[in-house]
UniProtKB/TrEMBL annotation:
<feature type="transmembrane region" description="Helical">
    <location>
        <begin position="339"/>
        <end position="358"/>
    </location>
</feature>
<feature type="transmembrane region" description="Helical">
    <location>
        <begin position="155"/>
        <end position="174"/>
    </location>
</feature>
<dbReference type="Pfam" id="PF07690">
    <property type="entry name" value="MFS_1"/>
</dbReference>
<feature type="transmembrane region" description="Helical">
    <location>
        <begin position="425"/>
        <end position="444"/>
    </location>
</feature>
<keyword id="KW-0812">Transmembrane</keyword>
<keyword id="KW-1003">Cell membrane</keyword>
<keyword id="KW-0472">Membrane</keyword>
<dbReference type="InterPro" id="IPR036259">
    <property type="entry name" value="MFS_trans_sf"/>
</dbReference>
<feature type="transmembrane region" description="Helical">
    <location>
        <begin position="395"/>
        <end position="413"/>
    </location>
</feature>
<feature type="transmembrane region" description="Helical">
    <location>
        <begin position="186"/>
        <end position="207"/>
    </location>
</feature>
<keyword id="KW-1133">Transmembrane helix</keyword>
<protein>
    <submittedName>
        <fullName>FHS family L-fucose permease-like MFS transporter</fullName>
    </submittedName>
</protein>
<dbReference type="InterPro" id="IPR050375">
    <property type="entry name" value="MFS_TsgA-like"/>
</dbReference>
<feature type="transmembrane region" description="Helical">
    <location>
        <begin position="308"/>
        <end position="327"/>
    </location>
</feature>
<feature type="transmembrane region" description="Helical">
    <location>
        <begin position="20"/>
        <end position="39"/>
    </location>
</feature>
<dbReference type="InterPro" id="IPR011701">
    <property type="entry name" value="MFS"/>
</dbReference>
<feature type="transmembrane region" description="Helical">
    <location>
        <begin position="115"/>
        <end position="135"/>
    </location>
</feature>
Amino acid sequence: MLPTAPPAPAAAPPLTERRYLLTLVFVVSLFMLWGLGVTMADVLNKHFQQVLHVSKANSAYVQAATFGAYFVMGLPAGWFMKRFGYQKGVLLGLGLYAAGAFLMVPAASAASFPLLLMALFVLACGLGTLEAVAHPFLDGLGDPASSDRRITFSHAINGIGAVSGPLIGGYFVLRGTHAAGDLSSVKVLYTIIGTVVGSIGLLFAFVKVPPLNAEHTPGTATSETGEAPTDLAADKSLFQHPHFVWACVAQLFNTAAQGGTWAFFINYGTDYMALKPGPAIHGFWQVGTLLGRTVGLVPGLPHLANDVAAYFFSLSLVGMMLGRFLGTYLMQFIAPNRLLAFAAVANMVLCLVVAQHWGWVSFGALIGLNFFFSVMFPIIYSLGLKDLGRHKQLASSFIVMGVVGAALFPRFVMGAVANQSVAHAYYLPIICYAVVFVYGAKFYKVVRS
């Protein structure tokens, strides 16, 4: 008898279904909007140092206000979407986002750092709400087996917004010189942002969202076919799922590393890198021209201007966006947790190089951090939501609350070291990436018993 041929491997499920396509487009656009809002805060960090004469450590209150709002809004957003559904949760997030943007105008007119932080806090409450709602929403817009790819793809689109933040901020806010207390560019920029975000919210209010299956639809107990869903979480409380608890811990340390890296990127460029246009750096000159300036690395020449460093920050975020697109593809062949562990190790090595401030080598390593960082947030999120059934909405809120790491770490840990040496502050994220590695290597596993 001839040996039986092994069965053909099952084809990867599609990213989504046709009926969800319009909804998916709107939800993915939310990722772009909060990418813009988050990285714009890192531009403001440097601008407030210059215009309002805020120290490096105190300017990190920008990150504290932004990411602290995620912690504050995590649970309320979860309760709101559980009670009123995903679409109204999105509208709440967009409303807070637009309100915070418009509040930036009177705060900038008063040139008051505390008032600016309050406006950013309201804006970031909108960002935190969108993030808490969008992840479980995305999880239900297609086959559960493709949720990792769907979330990572959406974070790749988030990269477009993240890249746009420093570019737009560099052009509107950091370009040229500004007199003390001159925040007129901030008023113009956030008026535009508030108008755009409010308009998107108005459009989304008229979108008809198709019904999702029971595991993803707040308040339901049966699937679209009328059958009870398989709920592996039915006999457990949320915190009895170790993979979820460890996802919260990993996300706390992951966002701490991200917040610190981004908060002091522009400072690193202006402190250590020098300006020199010319043929010796022709390849980088072409990239710099595309972004608006050019850069070189010859000791003793004038250091990078603020806006040029912001353009390089944007260039680093292009790497993050590309990393997420690549990660979406690779997850068809490589387990997400393995990609996560590999990326964490890579960034531990790069942080060591950044801390040595070896000119272009270290600055290149700093730019490269975002490429490997790219897949960490979405993979931790998707692994943490696995098989949580009825707990999924609340679990999303708790994972979002882990973003508070980006509020605490830059201000109270990296900021204190950065006041003495920005380069040496980059030793500290290595601890964070070690925690992420342990999660990807071991603690991601769903315990079914």
